[in-house]
Structures are given as structure tokens and as C-alpha cells.
């Protein structure tokens, strides 16, 4: 439903119709007749009022630590302690000789430690040892008869004597009692720490009564001190000689202060193997008052191995990162995390620089993987971060006029702020940026750079920083996306980003939902402004809710991730991704709980459908090849019945309402993953939605690539450049599974090329002929070529920037309307495919000779190809203009877990955008890529190799075509009834070999003039064979009598003999019954094709290419030259684009041209510049930048002379024309691009 007062052109569906040359269909309804199937109802509001936090929290799976078992073990420990205490008392009261046995208490403590995941704290070890020593001491004294009195052991006459005191029975019993109490306290501390760190099925009332009073962290000048106790539960594969800890404080991705190292120690055994560090780590010059609100502590564990070789006594040390643990210094209430903590160790592949610290209990193997026990310096009082500084002080930008700065500082600041976020300025540049920050208040784009240049984010600096946020000119919503990067952890900065993206429309917001879901991971706390915003938008738009649901489902494992997530693979990658599962699951459950009953049922029915399709795909895979289709049909029958009972929509779009499956038209593709091709029945009658369900490939890469290509298309459309880009929906529905929208009326480039044989990839005409077959009228063909040229330019730019590889001819498709598009983006960001040792992707992008043939309209260069080059470079520079947006999106996706999408991906895209070049320089660079792509034969050879590999799959038949050379079916009602057909003549043609076509004169009812068609003998033979197949009882005259000849068949005598046979065949055909003579096959054959409408004389007996005009030397100069002039960065830049309509030279040859440039006056020819030579081309593209390093005041008084020459290595070069430009008449501070007419200039 279209909102009021909104232009129709703003809607994406309208753009799609315009792009595909479809009519925009609008329907008028009364507002009361519009059905809102996903709208919330009154009962949903009642339901939401009763929601509690427990409804949002998932049902945790059974935990190894249970209350009942723990209670049994604690009771056992209490019993053993009571026994030992009673025994100690009885020793002295009853004077028994039985020694104390500490083993009962020891075993009870060991059982508790084993139950709590083999975590043996150092204080428990020390207390147990003390307990054993005390027990042994009492036992020894009881055995000693002399322990009952005081006596002198030795006296040597000096000032000192050795005396043994009388044994104090009461003191020893009290000591045993104290040690037992200490054991119980240490066990309680262990349980409390364990419950804070890991999942258990009970809650503890933590004892915090020891802390009296509160203080603000800003009032505490003490340095941060950390005590690293032990590393527990070492992996059996760890066999390092030494271990050490590196501690670092982070704020976002920025380290604060210096790294502090522990001492290196070896592993040792007590009850279990562990590493005892016993290290106090102090962060000098890093006091508690300097900690930012979002700061965290990161502790990295390293293993050292000493490598000795042979007799050499010196050893080399190799150091390996084993993992890391982290903790936020302040919790969500702002309380400082002092005291003892157990930190799960995360694998090195989980980026420790990305905040926040993983929440306690999020490690999927927290009960078995390594754990680090630490203590953050404890105070006698609670510490809280000060409340937010409520001050609406606004800094007035008028007080800081940017133009009042000196020109050098202005230029320096502008250079810094227009860099992308991922280009790190020099330290001196950052200092200047921070010092002059108030002069940039009026420049919104500068805000992220200034925030990154801030010296500190401690409480003392927040007032200035937050007032600066409120005073800054509003940043554009798309630019505000970078404030969600993990390098901006401050809550107020992220709140500002949310405020700015509220200005995005729902359609725009959907474009960036994948990145916003990733940004949720980097919010310091769960109840973030971004999470609230996403839920709010989901409540206001079912489309946003639908997309948000599937973006949250994708990264979570399991068939029902909203309830629980099961992780069966303990590999490092899976473990590292699980640090975000709990937060995403909580947001997913909040979405499902608040979206309303109708949408909730839709989500669950979609999830059930995807599960059933997954089971079907797995069943097909495990079945024998001969049974696969039967299994597929059987499973789809059950799914069809389910959809009839409960219609739903596809994950591809909430508008794709389905109610069943067209089972007979479904099949599977015979590739490695056996994707399923499924035609879903739409709720609208006689409408189907084709889709592919795929299991085995990670479709997240495809989803991201398609999203970025769509974004590029929107950027181009915004700049007025329509590149006819065709994309498709792709929704991952779980790990290595998902559903893909099928583009209709499209064919792969491989199938198009092999219509001309296995070596069709080396030929120039397959695409052109395929387009002509599907676009029979001249207007349709012209439109298809325009669509092809534009979409080819768009995908050339997109595939280069994104580094899309594995570009064989089955991964490139074309619609019958000429739109070219790419599929299967499993290899991107430069991850090239190899065939053995052969690198298959060797060009910047795919641009082959058959594509150029279509663009040029033949095998000769033309202005159409120059237009293609200009379109490419224009599209490339538009993307470069918005390059920061692309880099920010990839930066946000770096934590998504998508293979290959890391910070290296950001660097790859950044490098591909050529940020160091100006627009003309980038245009010249991209033009060279076009040239390299065309010249390379590797692409076509790669296509050929793929053709060979796919030969076993070449038995597909397209049953919708009656004739191979006419793609559609035509009827008598469409074409007009045929009265008769005569063979008017035959014509000899060359393509490039000689062959004959027959001119058929077709008479139709109510048409005064006959039409003339051109058909080859091969096509006529195919027509007759199809007639025999369709009408086996009809008696047709055979054309086979003249089809086989000894010797040459393409000669005039054979053609004349065949002409008679063809006429007799046609006469007989139209004398048959109407069911035969006026069948659809007949009218399809006689439908006029593009070749029939092109101008060709029916009287000519021979048709060749028109002869080229003979060379006649004239004094008249022809042609034009395209130049761009611009003065920037202290240099005068001349971009030589193209020349066109150049005359031929002697011998009727095309000239080998180059351009020569002077700045006159120039008596010494010091300003001479030349381009490369473009061989044999009347429409050469140079795309070269010529540069003059001289002041602007000098340049503007010069005269530019550019001349075009034909190069000849044997004789004098020939002058083709030139231009003279008075530079003082041109504003050189801005780019000036124009075509200039060539004339005869003095040289």
C-alpha cells in the first residue's frame, strides 16, 4: 500500500518494472478493503502487557552443575569436616592413640572440584595443605609421650637454650576448627565465582555485606591492579615449556596504557594439572578514575617453547597465543567489577580487540575448556561509575570560523576528514585534528575522525565530548552508520547514531539491516539504544520484522534457535562465533514475543517449511541416483499438503504468499550440493514463484555480495545512471543452507555459447545471435543491446570492486531482455579459483570478445564501445565517491563469521577503490583494466575448460521451444492466416563461410503486401522434422533427397535443386488439413525474425559486407577528440578519453592513432606529451592522464594544443587533426569534459 504524498518513483518495485521494461500496475482499493494480514490486534497489546523477563529468556538446556548434586557434595563435605573435628576433640578427651585421617575431607573437596569442572583455586590448595599438616602434627604429638610437659632439649652453657613447650590441646583443636572453616569459606567462594561465570540451574544470594558504603570511580586515584592466580583445565595438546599472561585494557578497539606481562611459569600438578602464575599486575599511570565507562580488561595466555638444535646450546623461543579472557570493568548498573572472577578462555581466532567482553556463561564449553582465575583489586566499599553528566551546553560554531585558520591548516584538516574511517592518520595529524576540533563543528563528516582522535574517554573528559556531540552539525544518516563500528563504544555516541538513522525510510533501513544486526554484537550491554530501535521499527513494519527475523536466525545454530542453540562442533571458529549467540537469541525472542500473533505464526510456519525442505534435501542426497527424483516428489507431496492446510510466505519476502507446490515441475540440479528447484504455488491463481533451496554452501557470502551490488545500483540511480542491474533475493536460513530467488526467462552464458558448439566460448557471435533469436524485431533487439551494455558495465565495476572470482560461464546469466547478471558468489574478495596449478581468474573482471561484439554492434570498434567505457568509469567513480559507506559496511560485517569477511576484506575493497587517485586518474586506471580483460584469452579458455567439465550435464532439453531458432510460440490468431508461401529466390551469404538462404514470399489474409523471410536449408530441415514428430500420420514431401551430396553442397547448382524441393514441400503443406497447415509450429516458423526486418535486397543473389569506401585524400579534417581538463594538487591534468569518426588513411587502412599535446608557447618543446598508440581504429580509446607540474597562474595563460596522428613505423606519421584551447577561458579548478571538433591547426 503506497503512503500518501509519496512519489511513485521512490518505490523499489517501480524501479524494477522500469528496469525490466514492464508496466507499472497499480490497483485502487478503498482503505477499508485492504487486508493487513500481519497487523497487530487488540489482544496482542493485552498479551504484551503481561510479558515478563522470564518469557524472553530461553529455556536453557540441562546443565552439568545442578543444585541437587551440589547439595549432596556439600553435605558430604560438611559430614567429613564434622567427623574430623569430633575426632580431634576425642583424641585429647579420651586420650585415644588413633591418628587424625584428613583423607575424607580431601576426597570430599576433590569431588567438589571435579564437579565444578576441575577448577582448583590456589587458596583451596593452600588451605588443604595446611589442613593435612595440622592433622599430621596433632597425630604426631599424640604419639609423643613427652608432649605433656615443658622441658629443656639442650643447654650448651651459652645465652640460649632449646626448649620444648608443653603441647596446648585446646589451641590445636581450635586450629583444626579454623582450618575447616577456612576450607568451607574457600569452597563457598569457588561456588560463588563459578555461578557468576557459568550457567547453573540455581541462583545464589551473593554475600556482599562485607562492602560498606559506595564511592565514585572518578574519586579513586589508585592504579589498576590485577592478581592472576591460575590457569585451569589445560588442553592435553598444550605441551609448552612456559606460560605467561599479557594484560591490556581496551576501550572499544583502542588499547589504553601499556601491556603488562606476568612472569613466565611452568605447568604443575596438584589435584589437576594447572599453571600457577601468582602474579600481581599493576597498570602504571592507569588509575581507576581514568577508566572509561565501557573499558574492559583483556588477558592473553601465551605458551613458550624452547627449540634446541643439535649440539647448539643456544635455544630459540617460539611463542604461541593460546587464548584470551576478558571482563568489563563496569557492569550494566555501573558497578566496578572488583573481587575474584573466573574467565573462560576464548580461541585466538575470536578477535579480542572487538568489544564488549563476552558475557559470563556464553562460552559453549565453559564446563570443560580452559579457565583463568583472577582477582581485580578489592576495596572495602562498592565503586560506581559517576552518573551521566546532564549538561546541554551547546558550543557555538560561529565562535570557531573554519576560514579563519591559515590555508595550510585548512587543507591539512580537509585531507584528514575526507579520508575513510580505516585510514589511520599520522599522530601529528590527529593532534592537529583534536586541537582544531571546534573549527570543524559545521562539517558533519569530520565527527567520526574527531571522536577517534580524542585523547581519553574517562569521566573527566565526557562532559566536553558529549557537549561536542550535541553541538556538531547533524551527520548524514548513512555516514552515521560508521558510528556503530566497534571502535566507537561510547553509549552516547551510539545513541546519536541511532537518532540519525531514524531518518532513514523503511526501505533504506532494510538495505542496512544485516550490518545493524552485527552492530548489536558490539553494544556494551544488552539493553542498548540500537536494540530498542530495531524492535521499535519491527513493530511498525512487518517487512522490517520479517527481514530482522531471518537476519537473527542466520547466525544461530540449530533447527529452532529461538528456543535453544545446540553446538556440536567444538572447533575454534564455532566457539568464537558463540560469544554473541545469547544476545542475538534474546533479541530474537523479544521480536517473536512482541510482533503479534499473526506474524508470530507466520515466522514459525516459515521455520517449519525450511526444516521440511532441509530434510527433503538431505533425503535426496543420501538416496541412490536412480531414486532421487522419486524421493523428491514423495517429500514435496507431503510439504504441498502442509502448505494447503497452512499457507505461509517465503523467507525471500513477506509478499511472496504461497499455498502449495507445483510438484511436477520440481527437480534437482545435478551438481555437488544437489540444489532443489521448487515451484511454489502463489495465492494468486495461475502464478508460481520459482526458487532454489540449497544445502551445503554458505549462502551468507551470496547474501552480502547481492546486498552490496544492490546498494551500488541505488547509488548509481541516485546519480542518474541506470545500469539495468538485475539481482535476486538470497536468504540463508541456517548453517550452510538457504533459499534463493530464481530469475525467470534467463539462461547461463555456457548454454548460450555452446549453441555454437563446444568451442563457442572462443567465437564472437553467440550472444548476439541468442539476443536476436529472443528479440526478433529491430526495436526489441536495440533495447536488448542497450540493456546488455548497461548491465555489463555495472557488473564489470561491481565484480572488480568486490573481487568476485570463480567466474566461469555457468556463473554468468542473461535474461532474454538482454540484462546480464552474475550468480554464485562463493568466491569473492580476491579468493581466486584454481584448476590444479592453473589460476582460473586472471583478469580484473569478465569482459570477452563476444560481449564486446554485442556492445559494438559488430566486430569493428564504434562509439558504442566508447560509451560503454565512459559508463564504466562513471559508475566506478560514483562508487569511489561513496567508498566510505562500503568500507563501513564491510567493517561492521567483520564479526559476522562469513568466510573471508574480516578486516582484510576492508583492506581489499579499500585498495580496489584506488583512494589515492583523482577521478580522471581512476578512470584511466579502470580503462586499462577493460583493455586487459578484453585482451586476455584466459577467460575464454576458462570457459572452454568449464564446457568440457560440464559435458555430462548437457542433455537438458528446453521443452517450451518449438524451433531452436525461434524462442517463442506464435499462433494464427497472433500472426494472421497464411494463404500461401512461394520461394522467391535464393541468396548467397558469408558468415564467414559461404552458405545459401532461401527467400520465402508469404501471403496473408487481409494484408495487401506480402512479407519476405530468409531461411537457411538447415532451418527448413528442422521445420520438416518437427512436423513429422508432431504429425506422424501426415504425408509430407521429404527434403532429404537433396540434403546429402557428394562433394560440395554449398554451390549454386545444389541450391537451385533444393529450391524446387522446398517449393513442392510448401505447396503440399498448405494443402493439408488446417490442424497441420495452420498449426502453431507453422506460424512459429513463418514469424518474422530480426534478420527478416533488416534491410537486405531480395533481388541480390549475393550478400556481402558493404565495400569500404576507397581512400581519397582530402584536405577536410574529420573527427572529434574528448578531453577532461582540471587543475588540482599543484598540477594541470589532461585526461585524453577518446577520438571518434577519424578518417581512413592511404590504402583504405584504419589509422594507428595517438594524441600529442603541447602548452604553447613552447619553443623548446618542453611541454610535449604523448599517449600510447591505439592500432587500426577509427574510434580509439586512449584513457590516459597527461600531467604538467606548474603553477595555476602560469597554466591559465597558456594555449593547449592537442593533435591526433596516425603512427607509421616505416614512413612519416600522418596528421589527422587537432584542437586549440585558450586555457584562460576555462575554470580549471573544476573538471571540464567535452568533445572537441578536430581541425587543421598550425603545428
From TrEMBL:
InterPro entries per UniProt: ARM-type_fold, C2_dom, C2_domain_sf, Kinase-like_dom_sf, PI3/4_kinase, PI3/4_kinase_cat_dom, PI3/4_kinase_cat_sf, PI3/4_kinase_CS
Domain PI3K/PI4K catalytic: 662-939
Residue ranges constituting the PI3K-RBD domain according to the UniProt record: 1-30
GO CC entries: cytoplasm; phosphatidylinositol 3-kinase complex; plasma membrane
Pfam families for this protein: C2, PI3_PI4_kinase, PI3K_C2, PI3Ka, PX
Domain called C2: residue spans: 1117-1236
E.C. designation(s): 2.7.1.137
BP term (GO), one: cell migration
Family stated for the protein in its record: Belongs to the PI3/PI4-kinase family.
Protein name, entry field: phosphatidylinositol 3-kinase
Amino acid at each position: 500500500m503506497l503512503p500518501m504524498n509519496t512519489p511513485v518513483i521512490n518505490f523499489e518495485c517501480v524501479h524494477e518494472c522500469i528496469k525490466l521494461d514492464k508496466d507499472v500496475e497499480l490497483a485502487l482499493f478503498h482503505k477499508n478493503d485492504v487486508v493487513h494480514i500481519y497487523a497487530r490486534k487488540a489482544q496482542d497489546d493485552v498479551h504484551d502487557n503481561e510479558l515478563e523477563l522470564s518469557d524472553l529468556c530461553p529455556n536453557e538446556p540441562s546443565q552439568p552443575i545442578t543444585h541437587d548434586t551440589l547439595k549432596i557434595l556439600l553435605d558430604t563435605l560438611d559430614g567429613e569436616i564434622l567427623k574430623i573435628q569430633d575426632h580431634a576433640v576425642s583424641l585429647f578427651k579420651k586420650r585415644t592413640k588413633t591418628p587424625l585421617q584428613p583423607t575424607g575431607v580431601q576426597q570430599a573437596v576433590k569431588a567438589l572440584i571435579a564437579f565444578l569442572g576441575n577448577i582448583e583455586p590456589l587458596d583451596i590448595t593452600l588451605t588443604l595443605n595446611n589442613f593435612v599438616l595440622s592433622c599430621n602434627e596433632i597425630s604426631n604429638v599424640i604419639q609423643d609421650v613427652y608432649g605433656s610437659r615443658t622441658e629443656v632439649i639442650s643447654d650448651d652453657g651459652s645465652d640460649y637454650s632449646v626448649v620444648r613447650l608443653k603441647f596446648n590441646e585446646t589451641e590445636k583443636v581450635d586450629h583444626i576448627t579454623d582450618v575447616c572453616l577456612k576450607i568451607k569459606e574457600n569452597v563457598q567462594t569457588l561456588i560463588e565465582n563459578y555461578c557468576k561465570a557459568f550457567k547453573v540451574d540455581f541462583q545464589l544470594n551473593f554475600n556482599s555485606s562485607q562492602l560498606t558504603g559506595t564511592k565514585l570511580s572518578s574519586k579513586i586515584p589508585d592504579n589498576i591492579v590485577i592478581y592472576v592466580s591460575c590457569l585451569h583445565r589445560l588442553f592435553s595438546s598444550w605441551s609448552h615449556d612456559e606460560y605467561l599472561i599479557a594484560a591490556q585494557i581496551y576501550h572499544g578497539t583502542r588499547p589504553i596504557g601499556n601491556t603488562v606481562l606476568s612472569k613466565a611459569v611452568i605447568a604443575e600438578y596438584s589435584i589437576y594439572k594447572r599453571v600457577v602464575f601468582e602474579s600481581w599486575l599493576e597498570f602504571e599511570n592507569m588509575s581507576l578514575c581514568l577508566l572509561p565507562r565501557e573499558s574492559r580488561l583483556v588477558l592473553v595466555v601465551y605458551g613458550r617453547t624452547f627449540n634446541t638444535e643439535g649440539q647448539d646450546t643456544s635455544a630459540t623461543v617460539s611463542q604461541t597465543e593460546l587464548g584470551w579472557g576478558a571482563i568489563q570493568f563496569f557492569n550494566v548498573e555501573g558497578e566496578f567489577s572488583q573481587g575474584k572472577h573466573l574467565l573462560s578462555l576464548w580461541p585466538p581466532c575470536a578477535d579480542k580487540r572487538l568489544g564488549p567482553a563476552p558475557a559470563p556463561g556464553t562460552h559453549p564449553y565453559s564446563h570443560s575448556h580452559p579457565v583463568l582465575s583472577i582477582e581485580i583489586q578489592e576495596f572495602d566499599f562498592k565503586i560506581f561509575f559517576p552518573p551521566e553528566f546532564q549538561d546541554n551546553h551547546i558550543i557555538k560554531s560561529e565562535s570557531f570560523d573554519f576560514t579563519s585558520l591559515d590555508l595550510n591548516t585548512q587543507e591539512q584538516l580537509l585531507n584528514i576528514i575526507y579520508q575513510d574511517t580505516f585510514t589511520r592518520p599520522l599522530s601529528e595529524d590527529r593532534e592537529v585534528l583534536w586541537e582544531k576540533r571546534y573549527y570543524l563543528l559545521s562539517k558533519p563528516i569530520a565527527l567520526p575522525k574527531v571522536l577517534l582522535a580524542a585523547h581519553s574517554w574517562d569521566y573527566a573528559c565526557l562532559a566536553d565530548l558529549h557537549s561536542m556531540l550535541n553541538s556538531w552539525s547533524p551527520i548524514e544518516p548513512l555516514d552515521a552508520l560508521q558510528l556503530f563500528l566497534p571502535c566507537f563504544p561510547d553509549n552516547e555516541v551510539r545513541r546519536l547514531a541511532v537518532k540519525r538513522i531514524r531518518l532513514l525510510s523503511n526501505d533504506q533501513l532494510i538495505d542496512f539491516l544485516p550490518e545493524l544486526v552485527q552492530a548489536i554484537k558490539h553494544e556494551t550491554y544488552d539493553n542498548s539504544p540500537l536494540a530498542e530501535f530495531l524492535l521499535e521499527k519491527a513493530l511498525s513494519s512487518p517487512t522490517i520484522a520479517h527481514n530482522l527475523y531471518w537476519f537473527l536466525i542466520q547466525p544461530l545454530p540449530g533447527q529452532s534457535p529461538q528456543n535453544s542453540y545446540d553446538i556440536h562442533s567444538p572447533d575454534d571458529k564455532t566457539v568464537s562465533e558463540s560469544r554473541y549467540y545469547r544476545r542475538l537469541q534474546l533479541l530474537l525472542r523479544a521480536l517473536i514475543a512482541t510482533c503479534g500473533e499473526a506474524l508470530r505464526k507466520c515466522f514459525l510456519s516459515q521455520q517449519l517449511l525450511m526444516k521440511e525442505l532441509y530434510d527433503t534435501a538431505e533425503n535426496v542426497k543420501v538416496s541412490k541416483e536412480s531414486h532421487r527424483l522419486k524421493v523428491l516428489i514423495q517429500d514435496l507431496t507431503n510439504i504441498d499438503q502442509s502448505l494447503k492446510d497452512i499457507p505461509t510466505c517465503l523467507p525471500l519476502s513477506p509478499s511472496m504468499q504461497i499455498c502449495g507446490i507445483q510438484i511436477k515441475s520440481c527437480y534437482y540440479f545435478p551438481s555437488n550440493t544437489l540444489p532443489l528447484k521448487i515451484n511454489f504455488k502463489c495465492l494468486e491463481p495461475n502464478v508460481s514463484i520459482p526458487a532454489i533451496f540449497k544445502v551445503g554452501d554458505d549462502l551468507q557470502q551470496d547474501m552480502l555480495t547481492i546486498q552490496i551490488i544492490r546498494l551500488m545500483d541505488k547509488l548509481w540511480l541516485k546519480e542518474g545512471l541506470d545500469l539495468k542491474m538485475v539481482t535476486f533475493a538470497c536468504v540463508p536460513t541456517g548453517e550452510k543452507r538457504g533459499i534463493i530467488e530464481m530469475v525467470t526467462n534467463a539462461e547461463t552464458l555456457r548454454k548460450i555459447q555452446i549453441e555454437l558448439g563446444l568451442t563457442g566460448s572462443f567465437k564472437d557471435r553467440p550472444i548476439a545471435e541468442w539476443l536476436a533469436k529472443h528479440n526478433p524485431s529491430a526495436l526489441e533487439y536495440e533495447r536488448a543491446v542497450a540493456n546488455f551494455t548497461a548491465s555489463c558495465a555495472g557488473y564489470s565495476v561491481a565484480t572488480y570492486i568486490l573481487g568476485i572470482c570463480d567466474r566461469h560461464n555457468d556463473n554468468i546469466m542473461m535474461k532474454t531482455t538482454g540484462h546480464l547478471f552474475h550468480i554464485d558468489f562463493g568466491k569473492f574478495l580476491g579468493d581466486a579459483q584454481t584448476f590444479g596449478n592453473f589460476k582460473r581468474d586472471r583478469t580484473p573482471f569478465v569482459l570477452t570478445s563476444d560481449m564486446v561484439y554485442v556492445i559494438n554492434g559488430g566486430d569493428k570498434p564504434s562509439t558504442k564501445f566508447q560509451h560503454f567505457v565512459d559508463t564504466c568509469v562513471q559508475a566506478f567513480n560514483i562508487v569511489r565517491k561513496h567508498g566510505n559507506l562500503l568500507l563501513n559496511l564491510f567493517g561492521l560485517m567483520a564479526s559476522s563469521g562469513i568466510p573471508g569477511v574480516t578486516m582484510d576484506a576492508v583492506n581489499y575493497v579499500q585498495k580496489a577503490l584506488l583512494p589515492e587517485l583523482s577521478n580522471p586518474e581512476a578512470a584511466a586506471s579502470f580503462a586499462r583494466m577493460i583493455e586487459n580483460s578484453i585482451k586476455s584469452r584466459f577467460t575464454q579458455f576458462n570457459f572452454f575448460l568449464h564446457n568440457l567439465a560440464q559435458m555430462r550435464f548437457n542433455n537438458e532439453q528446453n521443452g517450451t521451444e518449438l524451433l531452436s531458432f525461434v524462442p517463442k510460440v506464435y499462433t494464427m490468431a497472433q500472426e494472421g492466416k497464411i494463404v500461401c508461401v512461394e520461394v522467391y529466390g535464393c541468396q548467397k551469404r558469408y558468415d564467414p563461410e559461404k552458405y545459401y538462404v532461401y527467400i520465402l514470399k508469404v501471403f496473408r489474409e487481409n494484408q495487401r503486401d506480402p512479407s519476405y523471410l530468409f531461411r537457411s536449408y538447415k532451418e527448413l530441415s528442422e521445420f520438416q522434422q518437427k512436423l513429422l514428430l508432431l504429425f506422424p500420420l501426415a504425408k509430407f514431401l521429404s527434403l532429404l533427397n537433396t540434403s546429402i551430396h557428394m562433394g560440395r553442397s554449398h554451390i549454386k547448382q545444389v541450391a537451385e535443386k533444393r529450391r524446387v524441393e522446398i517449393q513442392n514441400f510448401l505447396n503440399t503443406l498448405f494443402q493439408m488439413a488446417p490442424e497441420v497447415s495452420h498449426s502453431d509450429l507453422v506460424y512459429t516458423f513463418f514469424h518474422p525474425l530480426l534478420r527478416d526486418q533488416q534491410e537486405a535486397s531480395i533481388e541480390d543473389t549475393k550478400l556481402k559486407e558493404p565495400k569500404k569506401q576507397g581512400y581519397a585524400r582530402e584536405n577536410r579534417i574529420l573527427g572529434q577528440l574528448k578531453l577532461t581538463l582540471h587543475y588540482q594538487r599543484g598540477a594541470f591534468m589532461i585526461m585524453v578519453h577518446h577520438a571518434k569518426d577519424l578518417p581512413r588513411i592511404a590504402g583504405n587502412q584504419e589509422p594507428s592513432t595517438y594524441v600529442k599535446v603541447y602548452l604553447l608557447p613552447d619553443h623548446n618543446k618542453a611541454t610535449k606529451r604523448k599517449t600510447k598508440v591505439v592500432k587500426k581504429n577509427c574510434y580509439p580509446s586512449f584513457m590516459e592522464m597527461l600531467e604538467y607540474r606548474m603553477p595555476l597562474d602560469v597554466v591559465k595563460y597558456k594555449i593547449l594544443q592537442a593533435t591526433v596522428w596516425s603512427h607509421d613505423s616505416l614512413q612519416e606519421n600522418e596528421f589527422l587533426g587537432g584542437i586549440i584551447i585558450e586555457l584562460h577561458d576555462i575554470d580549471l579548478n573544476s573538471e571540464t569534459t567535452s568533445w572537441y571538433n578536430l581541425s587543421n591547426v598550425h603545428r
